[in-house]
């Protein structure tokens, strides 16, 4: 009786597929040709976290949402990638140059997203893709920097990410990047806000569980930027972090802030071994 | 029966002064995290407690707990244990302590403290993402804690 009632409730209240289901066993192949590694052995640095397999957020979404990401004609994130191709070829700023003038085709960006955020020796800092793009805009093109995660910046980040699709995430966490990585790790485990929840409370201790209507994933960013059906645009990792921190009733950090740059490096490193998927599709 | 309880609670809250309310910073927790006496000095209203359990931005307890008696409200989470019989094996004092500050009962738990106003890292102004201004209010008032406890006591399993 009790079991029956519970089952009925599950069917009624939760997305029918995966009550307590965790990640599903589907396979992600894009356009029938790019095979994605969506589950991988956890990188060494995650020893002691209780996670021995890292899993793409794709596995936690409903079948219909998953499908959209499997075909570039359905993946509306690709519309923004196309827009960014125009931007790539358009000269801007006082130097009268475009991205293409220095970098030729966008294909030259293959591998970039797999290894960013990355230590920049000249600048003496860890840089995200958006920071690097703005460096080119300001110092080479004589153009205005784009505001962090704003449409032109996130669309360009998606164009760059799409050149690495299928390549394994492989960010360096040692050497000069180590300090920033540690800072990001501290943030990941800090219980912020009036609800006193850390990233780890939801994405390490509770992935696979539902929290109200949301099926918690590991909070990986190998799929970023992400096209969300909810707001019909591309979303950056920092904007997602911001939303998650806000939901703990906390004062968030700003997109592009040193804290979120450090957090991006740390979270990205938890996905070392997963394929770059950006732009992915989420609800 | 239900109506009587509500009427009684209303009559009580109208009559009694706020002076009997224990402030969030003044709460005494027992060794295992229980709180022996009513935080508001009044009895709880289970019907109001029911609403608080469901309301986002208030208890939103079903975000983490499945409760059969609340199955008319959509989407119950799995982060915490189901609460269907919790009133049969927990005392009101234990439940009051768990709802007010579960970390006194379960150290390190992910369950938020609903009657606590200090000791947070970067507390926000509700769900705006902005910094909190001035003193924080607890997520639930003293009376609301009592209401939730009263509802939990109705959960006796099947």
UniProtKB/TrEMBL annotation, chain A:
Heme c 1 binds at residues 99, 102-103, 136. It comes from the Bacteria. It is found in: Periplasm. Binds 2 heme groups per subunit. Residues 1-20 form the signal peptide. GO terms for cellular component: cytochrome complex; periplasmic space. Heterodimer of SoxA and SoxX. Keywords: Electron transport, Heme, Iron, Metal-binding, Periplasm, Signal, Transferase, Transport. Coiled coil: none annotated. Heme c 2 binds at residues 199, 202-203, 244. This is SoxAX cytochrome complex subunit A. The active site is at 244 (cysteine persulfide intermediate). GO terms for molecular function: electron transfer activity; heme binding; metal ion binding; oxidoreductase activity, acting on a sulfur group of donors, cytochrome as acceptor; protein heterodimerization activity; thiosulfate-cyanide sulfurtransferase activity. Its EC number is 2.8.5.2. Residues 84-169 form the Cytochrome c domain. Belongs to the SoxA family. It is an enzyme of class 2 (transferase). It catalyses: L-cysteinyl-[SoxY protein] + thiosulfate + 2 Fe(III)-[cytochrome c] = S-sulfosulfanyl-L-cysteinyl-[SoxY protein] + 2 Fe(II)-[cytochrome c] + 2 H(+); S-sulfanyl-L-cysteinyl-[SoxY protein] + thiosulfate + 2 Fe(III)-[cytochrome c] = S-(2-sulfodisulfanyl)-L-cysteinyl-[SoxY protein] + 2 Fe(II)-[cytochrome c] + 2 H(+). It holds the Pfam family SoxA-TsdA_cyt-c.
From TrEMBL, chain B:
GO terms for molecular function: electron transfer activity; heme binding; metal ion binding. Keywords: Heme, Iron, Metal-binding, Signal. It comes from the Bacteria. Pfam families: Cytochrom_C. Residues 44-156 form the Cytochrome c domain. Residues 1-19 form the signal peptide. This is Sulfur-oxidizing protein SoxX. The lineage of its organism: Bacteria, Pseudomonadati, Pseudomonadota, Alphaproteobacteria, Rhodobacterales.
């Amino acid at each position: 009786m009790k079991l029956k009632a519970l089952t009925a409730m599950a069917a009624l209240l939760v997305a029918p597929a995966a009550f307590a289901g965790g990640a599903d066993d589907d396979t992600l192949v894009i356009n029938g040709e790019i095979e994605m590694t969506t589950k991988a052995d956890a990188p060494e640095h995650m020893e002691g976290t209780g996670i021995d397999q890292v899993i793409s957020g794709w596995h936690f979404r409903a079948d219909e949402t998953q499908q959209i990401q499997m075909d570039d004609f359905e993946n509306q994130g690709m519309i923004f990638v196309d827009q960014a191709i125009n931007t790539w070829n358009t000269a801007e700023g006082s130097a009268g140059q475009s991205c293409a003038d220095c970098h030729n085709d966008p294909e030259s960006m293959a591998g970039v997203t797999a290894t960013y955020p990355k230590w920049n020796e000249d600048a003496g800092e860890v840089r995200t893709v958006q920071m690097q793009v703005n460096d080119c805009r300001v110092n080479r093109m004589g153009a205005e920097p784009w505001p962090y995660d704003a449409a032109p910046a996130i669309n360009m980040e998606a164009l760059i990410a799409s050149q690495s699709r299928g390549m394994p995430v492989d960010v360096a966490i040692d050497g000069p990047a180590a300090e920033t990585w540690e800072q990001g790790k501290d943030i990941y485990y800090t219980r912020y806000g009036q609800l006193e929840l850390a990233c780890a409370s939801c994405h390490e201790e509770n992935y696979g569980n539902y929290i109200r209507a949301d099926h918690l994933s590991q909070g990986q960013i190998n799929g970023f930027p992400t096209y969300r059906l909810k707001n019909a645009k591309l979303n950056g990792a920092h904007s997602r972090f911001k939303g998650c921190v806000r939901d703990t009733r906390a004062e968030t950090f700003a997109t592009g802030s040193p804290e979120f740059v450090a957090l991006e490096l740390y979270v990205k490193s938890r996905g070392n071994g997963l394929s770059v998927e950006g732009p992915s599709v989420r609800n | 029966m239900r109506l009587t309880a509500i009427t009684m609670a209303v009559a009580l809250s109208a009559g009694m002064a706020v002076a009997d309310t224990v402030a969030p910073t003044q709460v005494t927790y027992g060794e295992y995290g229980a709180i022996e006496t009513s935080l508001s000095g009044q009895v709880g209203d289970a019907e109001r407690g029911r609403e608080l359990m469901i309301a986002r931005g208030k208890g939103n307890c079903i975000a983490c707990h499945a409760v059969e008696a609340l199955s008319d409200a959509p989407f119950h989470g799995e982060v915490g244990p189901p609460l269907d019989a919790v009133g049969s094996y927990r005392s009101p004092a234990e439940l009051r302590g768990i709802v007010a500050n579960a970390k006194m009962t379960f150290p390190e738990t992910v369950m938020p403290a609903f009657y606590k106003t200090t000791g947070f890292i970067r507390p926000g102004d509700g769900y705006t993402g902005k910094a909190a201004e001035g003193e924080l209010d607890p997520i639930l008032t003293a009376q609301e804690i009592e209401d939730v406890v009263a509802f939990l006591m109705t959960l006796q399993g099947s």
